[in-house]
Write a structure and sequence with these properties.
- The protein has a six-stranded antiparallel beta sheet, covered by helices on one side. A five-stranded mixed beta sheet has the order 4-3-5-6-9.
- Helix 4 crosses helix 5 and helix 5 packs across helix 6.
- It has 300 residues and is an alpha+beta fold.
- It contains seven helices and 16 strands.
- The N and C termini lie far apart (59 Å).
- It is 33% helix and 25% strand.
């Protein structure tokens, strides 16, 4: 059967165990899809275990050529659940490390191809599942910053407040320099590791009231309420310097990375979010044209 023979609904009906009500004394462990097709789907783990792979006969089917027909197995044992790689071509990863066999612990991340699954044990699984769905709706799964959808929702609220109360509001758009060559030379897992490192710097520098998000592949944004353009530009420069001097410490990867940053302030006449984002994008373009690893804003 070719990949084109499967539509998404047919695949889901055939391969997904439905979420089912269980008695209070028998709450199963489960997997939640954090990344990939069927984002947010919950898969209860029955006593007989689960096989993950590309085969139509797999309990959880992932239609990717990088995934083996029977890629890995999760089995129930008296002490808990274990995961075993089934001699897959591209390996099974547990918390970013390739494994042959390992015990599963609450919160573990399992990566098979581009699909990432989170293992949840039996404790408070119902409440935690719903919390996980909320996180999926608002957070970028790679960096744990706000995702683009949540960013748009939050910046629109801040823009309305700034307009109503005539208060300053500034937006930074941050783009990694020469990111495509990193993916091409070192591979996408290394590129993901770089994005995580940059996100940690953003999170460490941002104040609690700032809105920090990943809004594209290698593009981030920070909203600074109550900051004029000069204050925001100073903050942007501190970010640029912190990232440029960061030792990435990624095995077999780049040691340094730089960013270009565009800064724009909300001004009277900006009616929608897109107006402010376009203004910040224009300044980002100037930073790129000016040689990268720099900050540009109106007036400089």
């Amino acid at each position: 059967m070719s990949l084109s023979d499967n539509d998404a609904s047919t695949t889901q009906r055939r391969t997904m165990r439905p979420h089912r009500s269980v008695g209070a004394g028998h709450v199963p462990a489960c997997l939640v899809v954090l990344q990939g097709q069927r984002l947010g789907q919950r898969i209860d783990l029955a006593d007989e275990g689960l096989i993950i792979g590309r085969s139509p006969e797999a309990d959880f089917q992932i239609l990717e050529r990088s995934v083996s027909r029977e890629h890995c197995r999760i089995s129930r044992e008296p002490a808990g659940y274990r995961i075993k790689d089934l001699d897959s071509t591209n390996k099974t990863f547990l918390n970013d490390q390739p494994i042959i066999e390992a015990e599963l612990k609450d919160g573990d991340h399992i990566a098979v191809g581009s699909c990432v699954l989170k293992f949840m044990d039996r404790s408070s699984v119902e409440a935690r599942y719903h919390e996980e769905i909320y996180q999926l709706a608002t957070a970028d799964p790679l960096t744990d910053l706000y995702n683009r959808r949540q960013f748009i929702e939050l910046i629109e609220k801040e823009l309305a407040r700034a307009a109503n109360h005539k208060r300053p509001l500034t937006l930074l758009i941050i783009d990694l320099d020469h990111f495509k060559p990193i993916n091409d030379q070192f591979g996408h897992p290394t590129g993901d590791a770089v994005l995580k490192k940059v996100a940690l710097v953003l999170r460490g520098h941002a104040r609690e009231e700032f809105i920090t998000a990943r809004i594209g592949g290698e593009e981030f944004a920070v909203v600074l309420p109550e900051h004029d353009v000069a204050q925001a530009a100073a903050f942007a420069e501190s970010l640029r310097e912190a990232i440029a001097t960061l030792d990435l410490a990624i095995p077999n990867g780049p040691s340094r990375v730089t960013v270009s940053i565009g800064v724009a302030a909300w001004q009277r006449g900006m009616l929608i979010t897109g107006d402010l984002m376009r203004a910040a994008d224009q300044q980002l373009y100037r930073a790129k044209q000016g040689g990268r690893n720099t900050v540009r804003w109106n007036g400089i």
